[in-house]
Amino acid sequence: MSGLPIxxxxxxxxxxxxxxxxxxxxxxxxxxxxxxxLRIVAPAxxxxxxxxxxxxxxELVERAYHRDDVGDAQLVVAATDDRAVNAAVLADAxxxxxxxxVADAPADGSFSTMxxxxxxxxxxxxSAGGVPGAAARIRDTIATRFDARYARALADLAAVRRxxxxxxxxxxxxRHATETFGAGFCDGVESGALAEQVASWx
Length: 202
What we know:
Blueprint: E1 14-18, H1 22-33, E2 37-41, H2 47-53, E3 58-61, E4 75-78, H3 83-95, E5 99-102, E6 115-119, E7 122-126, H4 132-145, H5 148-166, H6 170-180, H7 185-191, H8 193-199
Parallel strand pairs: 1-2, 1-4, 2-3, 4-5
Antiparallel strand pairs: 6-7
């Protein structure tokens, strides 16, 4: 797959997930973490999915998939253990011009999910050519460095950027940004020097 990395605002997306087993549960957890509006269609529902639905953020439809289920979904995920059902979901989603992921045949779909690390507003996604175990290991290695220190640094930078722009000090922000986002940026975050520097801009 020739990947085009994009970051979608999860809370603005309606997702249809077809499948009720362990694979569907893993997919649902990722989608819910991103804030997606999720509807799940399956004749049998895993307990993990029922627990997610209890939060009120998931709609469960306990029956076999029908092509009308695509409805107004913007993303469609086929995650059943039945290849024929997954193929039908793929065909229906493509016919409706929706982005679709097929759990057991990711190359057939139009998008795939990535192994994701989150630290505050920092989001790092890793794709490894259809080898999810490798993607997860690389993600975990990245996470050991890009931790809560980066979450705090980005929150501080976003706040001071907004403060300066609201004051009409756009040129001041540009100067600070030029000084800050050079080769020493990560060292500054990790040593705490950046936090002191940002505090002096307020």
